[in-house]
Amino acid sequence: MSGGTILTALDEGELEELLSPLPSFRARQIFSWIYRNAASFDEMTDLPLSLRNELKTRFVLYGGLVRERLAGRDGVVKLLMEFSGGARAEAVLLRDGKDRFTACLSVQAGCPVGCVFCKTGSIGFLRNLEAHEITEQFLHLSREAPAPIENIVVMGMGEPLLNLAPLRKALALVTSGKGLSLRRVTVSTSGIPGGILDMAENGPKTRLAFSLTTAREDLRRLLMPGAGKFPLSEIKAALAVYQEKTGRRLTLETVLLGGINTGAPDAAALREFAEGLFVVVNVIPWNPVEGLCFEGTPLREPSPSEVEGFIRCLENGGLNVTRRYRKGRGVLGACGQLGTR
Ligand code: SAH
Ligand code: SF4
Predict the structure, then answer these.
(1) Which of 90, 130, 136, 144 is catalytic?
(2) Most CB atoms closer than 10 Å: which of 130, 195, 313, 333?
(3) Does residue 20 contact residue 28 with C-beta atoms inside 8 Å?
(4) Nearest to 208 by CA among 197, 216, 219, 224
């Protein structure tokens, strides 16, 4: 984390400008090395030694460090990254049954939304991550993956739509550097209408997941203090615009909290919210986080019958439902379990 321009922050054009008067193919070579996961300038073996040495004195490749690495038995790897000023964020590599890899990225150190069920929310908010700090998470995870990472989910720490410009740049860098399509990227938001409209207008046109949690508005306001202040009608209108612009199916995520949002009224309200939208509902049984309470009572996992009953209510109403797998629990890298101070 020494001085000097951080190269992971730059696209090919910006690198070219920085390196001028060097010929542009040098910028292309360096950009391509970064996205082939070079860990240092020394690995850039098709650059002359004198140039590598000069680069070392003038620039830094990465701005952040991997502070900790945790590998789970289910193929999950969680990296704790540290960035300037001691800001920490976690990135998780997920592997599915077909050995395909997904990177789960963070956009903020902590989160200002403060959802009562989420570990990240419980630690408060430190700062937004910069574009290169998001890009670097992907690059370090790539090094962990035995095969190219095929998907990105922006579902780590923080609220993506409260840090949209850096996220936009990071996704542009990663998708161009790795030749990955934005269709392979899912951004999950607690529902910031202005941010959704901004994405609809200016991109990135990724898949979009909305963390509804419950469509009972009063309850939602209590569970998600920083997000519940936006009326659901306004969020729905923004989602409809996004859907119209992208033509893509939306995901409604609902984390099931035992005894709190698993009842028939929650299912009915959710069905009503989904009316007129093209959606799949992703039901996520709450992953335990020690010490989290709602109205003085510790949160608990939903029982199997609560989960099944809820899903049945949704399906009977004609909704498509998927159930989130629980990968990552062993390394506390599952949804809502991220949050090392
Ligand atoms: N801040 C964004 C993205 C990160 S959270 C958002 O809230 O959408 C990703 C998903 O994990 C959200 O749908 C959130 O509701 C869910 N989640 C949070 N804490 C959880 C927990 N302890 N168990 C299961 N899911 C959780
Ligand atoms: Fe922030 Fe998402 Fe956690 Fe809510 S669920 S506190 S929005 S990271």
Answers:
(1) 90
(2) 333
(3) no
(4) 197
pTM over 0.85: yes
Taking the C-alpha atoms of residue 328 and residue 316, their distance in angstroms, rounded to an integer, is 31
Query: With the C-alpha atoms ordered 309, 310, 314, 317, is the resulting torsion angle positive or negative?
Result: positive
15: CB partners within 8 A, 6+ apart:
7, 27, 30, 31
Number of domains in the chain: 2
Residue 278 contacts residue 294 (beta carbons within 8 Å): no
CATH number for the domain spanning 31: value is 1.10.150.530
Identify the domain boundary among 29, 45, 60.
60
Q: Which residue stretches of 148-192 are H helix? A: 164-178
Q: For residues 148 and 97, is the Cβ–Cβ distance under 8 A?
A: no
Q: Which residue bears the tokens 């193929």?
A: 75
The Å distance, Cα 117 to ligand 2 centre, comes to 8
Ligand 1 pocket check for 189: Cβ under 6 Å = yes
Mutate to test the pocket of ligand 2, among 105, 113, 154 (most ligand atoms within 8 A of CB): 113
Is residue 49 a part of any domain in this protein?
yes
Is the same domain home to 297 and 202?
A: yes
pLDDT for position 328: 63
Pair (319, 216) in one structural domain = yes
Contact 251, 210 (CB under 8 A): yes
| Closest-lying ligand 1 atom to the alpha carbon of residue 288 | 22
21: preceding bond cis by omega (within 30 degrees): yes
Among all chains, which residue has been given the structure tokens 């990552």?
Answer: 328
Confidence of residue 1 (pLDDT cuts 50, 70, 90): very low
Ligand 1: which residue has its CA nearest to atom 1? 159
Backbone angles phi, psi at 22, to 5 degrees: -65, 150
Please state, as a whole number, how many other Cβ atoms lie within 10 Å of the Cβ of residue 237: 14
Q: Which domain holds residue 51?
A: 5-60
Which residue among the candidates 115, 118, 313, 335 is catalytic per the annotation?
A: 335
CA distance 289 to 339: 10
For ligand 1, the distance from its centroid to the CA atom of residue 118, given in whole angstroms, is 6
Ligand 2 center to 113 CA (angstroms) = 6
Residue pLDDT, tens place only, 106-143: 999 999 999 999 999 999 999 999 999 999 999 999 99
